Write a sequence for this structure.
């Protein structure tokens, strides 16, 4: 990824589903909203697969079994194998298995899915610090108790290696916003003074790294597919390269930031949390390589904006420029290319030390 006059946006030579071998798709806000499919999502995923792209679904949710998520996606008409669902529980268990010997006791605070993944990773899940666990994995589930959190704190104080599924401070529930896994983790950190060694969830990039390993290990390959795996991990397992993997999400502070941290190019879709204004105001580490209205962008060619001068960027036939009274104007507020041009201009202004508070930003109807 070249961070130059294009203000972090990248060019694609052809459709993204042809330029990249693996898509790392976030779920909520990208593929579905609750029990309903996001418009164009299923057909776009199918078309990407026809172009030869592998699909992995990534989620910070540590409580839902892979089979349950796969079944939901299949109800949208998609063909999905459970191994394509990468949960933070799966990643956390595999992560811990690299730090402690096989068969080690691991204190688990989390739902049944997390317990199952720890056992599948060759470790022995326990619930008490009296079992002398060598590691702790702290996740989240609605029925968690103070007693369970206390066991985590006692084990960590006794020297157990401390891991967590994700650090999301909040979680949306039926009646509003509730404390998430990250808030519970902070309580343990406050009690012990010990920070987790690692987190499995986004915005850390571990989930994307594991997904590259898992698709290489599980997908049925023909001879041409095998040639794609030019890299191996430290354990000599085949792995799709970072350069051929694309992170796809709707959140700047999780999906896109995880991509930035791991060196992945990323596609932001505007079907979930992020709106055009948030994208215009994004800091460097939150800027995607590509942006599209929805997952149809996965099968489109993306042209990066071009700088005309210090106050003007173009993208395709669209233009963004600083007009009188420091107003950033675009020629087509209904066009995603205009948003790309406006972002390039806004980011360029910020990167040169200017504050967007001094500018009137354009409104988009995408």
């Amino acid at each position: 990824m070249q961070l130059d006059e294009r203000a972090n946006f990248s060019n694609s030579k052809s459709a993204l589903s042809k330029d990249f071998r693996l898509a790392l798709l976030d779920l909520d806000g990208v593929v579905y909203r609750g029990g309903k499919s996001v418009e164009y999502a299923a057909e776009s995923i199918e078309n990407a697969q026809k172009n030869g792209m592998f699909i992995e679904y990534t989620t910070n949710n540590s409580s839902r079994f892979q089979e349950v998520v796969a079944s939901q996606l299949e109800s949208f008409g998609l063909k999905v194998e459970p191994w394509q669902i990468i949960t933070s529980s799966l990643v956390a268990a595999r992560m811990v298995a690299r730090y402690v010997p096989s068969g080690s006791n691991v204190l688990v605070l989390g739902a049944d899915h997390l317990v199952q993944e720890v056992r599948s990773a060759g470790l022995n899940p326990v619930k008490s610090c009296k079992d002398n666990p060598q590691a702790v994995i702290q996740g989240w589930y609605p029925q968690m108790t103070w007693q369970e959190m206390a066991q985590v704190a006692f084990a960590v104080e006794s020297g157990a290696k401390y891991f967590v599924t994700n650090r999301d401070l909040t979680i949306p529930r039926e009646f509003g916003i509730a404390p998430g896994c990250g808030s519970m983790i902070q309580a343990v950190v406050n009690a012990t003074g010990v920070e987790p060694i690692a987190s499995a969830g986004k915005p850390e990039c571990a989930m994307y790294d594991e997904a590259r390993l898992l698709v290489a290990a599980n997908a049925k390959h023909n001879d041409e597919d095998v040639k794609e795996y030019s890299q191996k991990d430290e354990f000599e397992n085949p792995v799709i390269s970072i350069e051929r993997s694309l992170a796809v999400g709707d959140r700047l502070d999780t999906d896109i930031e995880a991509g930035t941290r791991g060196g992945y190019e990323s596609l932001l879709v505007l079907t979930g949390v992020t709106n055009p204004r948030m994208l215009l105001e994004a800091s460097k580490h939150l800027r995607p390589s590509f942006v599209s209205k929805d997952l149809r962008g996965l099968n489109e060619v993306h042209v990066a904006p071009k700088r005309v001068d210090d106050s003007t960027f173009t993208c395709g036939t669209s233009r963004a420029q600083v007009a009188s009274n420091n107003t950033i104007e675009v020629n087509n507020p209904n066009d995603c290319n205009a948003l790309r041009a406006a972002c390039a201009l806004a980011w360029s202004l910020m990167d040169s030390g200017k504050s967007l508070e001094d500018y009137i930003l354009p409104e988009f109807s995408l």
Summary: The chain is about 30% helix and 20% strand. The longest helix spans residues 336-351. The radius of gyration is 22 Å.
